[in-house]
């Protein structure tokens, strides 16, 4: 869902509640000076050297005060647990010793398939000095887990017997069954991989390097959230996604922060769970996705206002563009119109935020990710010609013209795919795969994916993965999956189906097909709409015209353009009628 741009006069702040006491004491002037040094050819090396020394080496004695590191909010309310840095150290050592005794050698790949429990972060850290690791989201099924183990050539899987989520038990060990002494790693050794969906249907193992990733995770955590020594930082994502990796585990750990790990879901046992947690743990920095914000908006303000949120100082948004309406509710209701909102833009591949306002520094516009982070040099490029769009008031596809420390180094086991996906499209620039516009003030607005990867509820899902799960069922002859605007998820999943002869549409069949997708990929990939049709719009060569499918699902039938080139134009009005009925628009 593309956010609507708000008109402003110059760079006057629309919302800036913290004022000058923010992430940078010198405000916008300091940001501009630091940013200029971070991208300048003559100064950027020295800039990053300074930051590396500041964030990754400590020259003072270790603090004797053992402050909390991780506040674990269990699935069941009232079962929270506090872990100090000493607890985390001991937990990490226990797992590291177990890895050593088991026979995990340097360079062996370890797949971490764990729920949102305290040991998960310890497991990640235990792998760090010995083995590259890949954290797999605990919602994935045995088949999806198997695919990721095979692709990364993992020799080991670190898992738990069971995980909890919204009162439900997930038997992780059963799913897995169905499917140290310090060795300093070199700066460019692979630290971990995370798998992200690709347009071909085969997940990509995005590989991050040790030193560059750690520096970038540490630095973005510090500046994007104006992190302070007494903060309680709550990123409520899952560690199986890059958000949890960077902002639950590594970023807070490198900054010596106290962090919250959340096992449950935002509506269990009621829609006030987040805000009850804020009150219980005195959370100061809260980081969640627009999907969750929009879902909680639907329950009204009462579930928010009955809980004490006076500890909150910074609110963060991640995973997809946040629409201005949700931004205002987050700012005005959750934050009582006094907390800075950090609308962060980044990807699994970038390692950390590449565009974000800095609290108390950057004048903000609801729905805009504002300005680039240090070292990031964005370009807007014409999608067809590849020409760079200079100046303000332009749109196109978003690229980055130079590397930054957190950038991924390769696709595990397939560097050609890495080059083809990210660097060959608009040489020599990095291609994000997202559309973007730069407004009259030079602020950036992300307009959504331009490839065949869906972004629903912050999860990236390849259309080919969904289609493969559907056509594996005997009832489906052909499937075409597209994204469409969704009020809660941002982007919903719509699947058009040509049924195999002998099968007829029925509520039972639709339910069965949704179950097939859930079983093949995971519950988060369940289609919102399954629409059996008499025929799909195809060219004479047999190519499905997905542009038409997207327009119809988005209720933009009046913008279809010329359909006379289709092999059978008569399928279009039948398609429109079927979709209108499914969406309740007939």
What does this structure look like?
The chain starts with 26 loop residues before the first helix and ends with a helix. Helix 5 packs across helix 6 (172-178) and helix 10 crosses helix 12 (324-334). The chain contains 17 helices and 24 strands. The longest helix is centred in the N-terminal third of the chain and has 18 residues, at 85-102. By secondary structure, the protein is of the alpha/beta class. Helices cover 31% and strands 21% of the residues.
Shape: globular
Number of strands: 24
State the strand order across the main sheet: 2-1-11-10-12-13-14
How large, in whole angstroms, is the Cα Rg? Answer: 24 Å
Strand content: 15-25%
Which percent range fits the helix content? 25-40%
Mean of all residue-level pLDDT scores: 88
Sheet with most strands: 7 strands, mixed
Give me the secondary-structure category. alpha/beta
Gap between N and C termini: 23 Å
- Oligomer state equals single chain
Unreliable stretches: 1-13, 60-64
Q: How many DSSP helices?
A: 17
Q: Could you provide a short overview of the structure?
A:
The protein is 31% helix and 21% strand. The protein has 17 helices and 24 strands.
What is the topological layout?
Blueprint: H1 27-39, H2 44-56, E1 68-73, E2 81-84, H3 85-102, E3 110-113, H4 118-127, E4 133-135, H5 142-152, E5 156-159, E6 163-165, E7 168-170, H6 172-178, E8 190-196, E9 204-209, H7 210-224, E10 232-235, H8 242-254, E11 258-262, H9 273-281, E12 285-288, H10 290-297, H11 302-305, E13 314-317, H12 324-334, E14 340-343, E15 378-381, E16 394-400, E17 410-411, H13 415-423, E18 430-438, E19 444-449, E20 453-456, E21 459-462, H14 463-471, E22 476-486, E23 490-499, H15 507-520, E24 529-532, H16 546-553, H17 571-582
Parallel strand pairs: 1-11, 3-4, 3-5, 4-8, 10-11, 10-12, 12-13, 13-14, 23-24
Antiparallel strand pairs: 1-2, 6-7, 8-9, 9-17, 15-16, 16-18, 18-19, 20-21, 22-23
